[in-house]
Every structure is written in structure tokens, then in C-alpha cells.
Design a protein that fits this description.
- The structure is a single chain.
- By secondary structure, the protein is mainly alpha-helical.
- Helix content is about 65%, strand content about 5%.
- A hairpin with a 5-residue loop joins β1 and β2.
């Protein structure tokens, strides 16, 4: 049988039979695969690195009160929350003196640890927790101290009476009763009251305190200002008002407003609980530095949990970011 003449360099399959070209094609394919694999590995490494470092970066950022407030302002303005942005910007300004003092104390504490020198704390953080104040050390406090007329002094005293912590409200009384928390020995601290007198700090007495939860709860309540909570709630108000305009009828508008109010409440709770417990734990274990870093870590965790709950409860709604004070 006769055999037909076949061109060995180019078969009807479209592939080159030339060994050199086959090798070149194989090298090209290998290089393309290598580039694709490297791109995937680089992208994965980038995402893993970002996921690993994000908590640390955000914790450090949140630990510096002026910074954590300022970084929220551009997003608030871009979302149309101009009134809330002005309010937060104003708080950043009036709180700057006290925030700087906190940073100074944290720096001095860190320096004393590194140099093994002595650092004089305001009181024994392991045993006590002082009551936080919304006004103390702020520019508003400095302004109110200059009140001279009897009417202005009376007004200032009325304002001071509102500046208390959750520990000293019915919430604190009920919590102490449920958890069996009692107030112990009083000692003078270097922290000053709004009237300039030295503040007493009281020991927190608890029994059967599993993992220190009861003690931390009491400390967190002492670190949570009622006026601070009220201010954070006011920052959520513009979004609630805006959401009331959404919908075609009254029922839809009310539902929209109620949902936004729920998200706002989760924002405030996440921030308050996170910063309260995180700061309480950090202060008890590591003093002034621990207080700031603990608040930063607590804020990061609190906002994360709050946003997770919002996504689960309201999956079709865009979650609003928590406002921080």
C-alpha cells in the first residue's frame, strides 16, 4: 500500500512539530503559569498581612483620642452628616487639653517602664478606678471655672451635677445589686473633681468573681460618662432624621427611622461597652498606658461586634459606622 507524503513540520492539528518551537512554547507557558501563581501568592500575602496588622493599626489609632475623632470627620461629611461632623469636631477641640494630658501621662509611664525609673500614678490602678468626667480638663471646664455671678455659678453647679458616670445612676445601683458589688475603702487620689478638690477613689469589693468579670463591669461603669453617652446619641440623630424621609408613605418612613435608630443604638452600645471594658482591663493591668491602649482595642472590638450584629439583623441595609467620642 502506498504511503502518502506528509509534511512533518506542520500537521493538520495546528501544532508545530518543530522541537525548538515546542520548547519555546513550553517555556512561555511555564512563565505565564509562574506569573499567575506569583500574582495569587502576592495578593494572598497582602490580604493576610492586612488582616493581621489591621487590628494593631486601628488599636494604636483609636488609642489617641484626637486622632480617632478626626479620622471619622471626612466620612461623616461625605455621607451628608455635616451636623454630626461639626459636633464631633467641636468635641475634639474642647477635649484637646485633657487628651494631651492623658497622652503625656502614658508617655511618662512608658518611659518609666523602659528606664526602670519611678513613676507616680494618680492612685493604685490595680485596686481602684476613679470616676470619669465629661467636662474635667476640657476647655469648657476652664471656661466654667471663671463664672463669677451667683446665677452663673448656680448654672455651672447644675451642669456639674449632671456630669456623673453610669456607676452613680440607677443602672449602677441595679448592676451592683445583681452582681453583689459593694464599695470598699476610700482613699484620696491625685485626680481632681470639677471643683478642684482631690477626688476620692473607692475599692470595689466582689465575691466569687469568675475571671474578674464583676470587677471589670464596675470599673467600666465608672469609666462611662452619662453625658458622653448622651453626646454619642446626638451624633446618631442626624441619620435617624434623614432616614425618616425615606419611603413612600408614613409607615415606611417610620420603619426606616426605627431601623436607623436601632443601628444607632448598636453603635453607641458597641463603642461604650468596648471602650469601657477594654480601658478598665488595660488600666488595671498596665496603668496609664494600658488605659489608652485598652480603650483603643476595646473600641476596635466593640465596633466590630456592633457591625456584625447589624449585618446579621439588617442584611439588606448599609451599616453606618459607629461614632466615637
Amino acid at each position: 500500500m502506498a504511503v502518502e507524503n506528509v509534511n512533518v513540520s506542520q500537521s493538520n492539528t495546528g501544532f508545530s512539530a518543530n522541537p525548538v518551537e515546542l520548547v519555546q512554547e513550553a517555556v512561555k507557558q511555564k512563565q505565564a503559569v509562574k506569573r499567575a501563581v506569583n500574582d495569587v501568592l502576592d495578593d494572598t500575602f497582602e490580604k493576610v498581612t492586612e488582616a493581621a496588622t489591621a487590628p494593631v493599626e486601628k488599636t494604636l489609632l483609636n488609642s489617641v483620642a484626637p486622632l480617632r475623632r478626626i479620622v471619622s470627620l471626612p466620612d461623616m461629611v461625605s455621607q451628608g452628616d455635616v451636623a454630626a461632623a461639626i459636633g464631633l469636631g467641636g468635641l475634639t477641640l474642647v477635649s484637646l487639653p485633657e487628651d494631651c494630658r492623658d497622652l503625656r501621662d502614658a508617655y511618662r509611664h512608658s518611659k518609666s517602664v523602659l528606664t526602670r525609673s519611678r513613676f507616680s500614678n494618680a492612685y493604685n490602678y490595680r485596686k481602684y478606678q476613679h470616676d470619669f468626667s465629661f467636662f474635667r480638663g476640657t476647655l469648657l471646664h476652664e471656661l466654667m471655672k471663671r463664672a463669677k455671678s451667683p446665677k452663673m455659678k448656680k448654672f455651672v453647679n447644675n451642669v456639674y451635677s449632671l456630669d456623673k458616670t453610669l456607676y452613680n445612676t440607677w443602672v449602677g445601683t441595679l448592676t451592683k445589686k445583681i452582681l453583689g458589688i459593694k464599695d470598699g475603702k476610700k482613699v484620696l487620689s491625685k485626680v481632681k473633681n470639677l471643683d478642684g478638690t482631690q477626688q476620692y477613689v473607692q475599692q470595689i469589693l466582689v465575691k466569687k468573681d469568675l475571671w474578674g468579670f464583676k470587677d471589670l463591669t464596675a470599673r467600666a461603669l465608672k469609666r462611662t460618662s452619662v453625658l458622653g453617652l448622651a453626646f454619642m446619641s446626638l451624633l446618631e440623630l442626624p441619620k435617624i432624621v434623614k432616614s425618616l424621609k425615606k419611603g413612600e408613605d408614613t409607615e415606611e418612613k417610620i420603619k426606616s427611622g426605627a431601623k436607623q435608630a436601632g443601628r444607632g443604638a448598636l453603635n453607641v452600645l458597641g463603642v461604650s461597652i468596648g471602650m469601657g471594658y477594654g480601658g478598665a482591663f488595660g488600666a488595671k493591668k498596665f496603668g496609664a498606658v494600658g488605659s489608652l491602649v485598652g480603650m483603643g482595642a476595646g473600641l476596635f472590638a466593640g465596633c466590630g461586634v456592633s457591625n456584625l450584629i447589624k449585618r446579621l439583623v439588617l442584611p439588606k441595609e448599609k451599616s453606618s459606622e459607629a461614632r466615637t467620642v
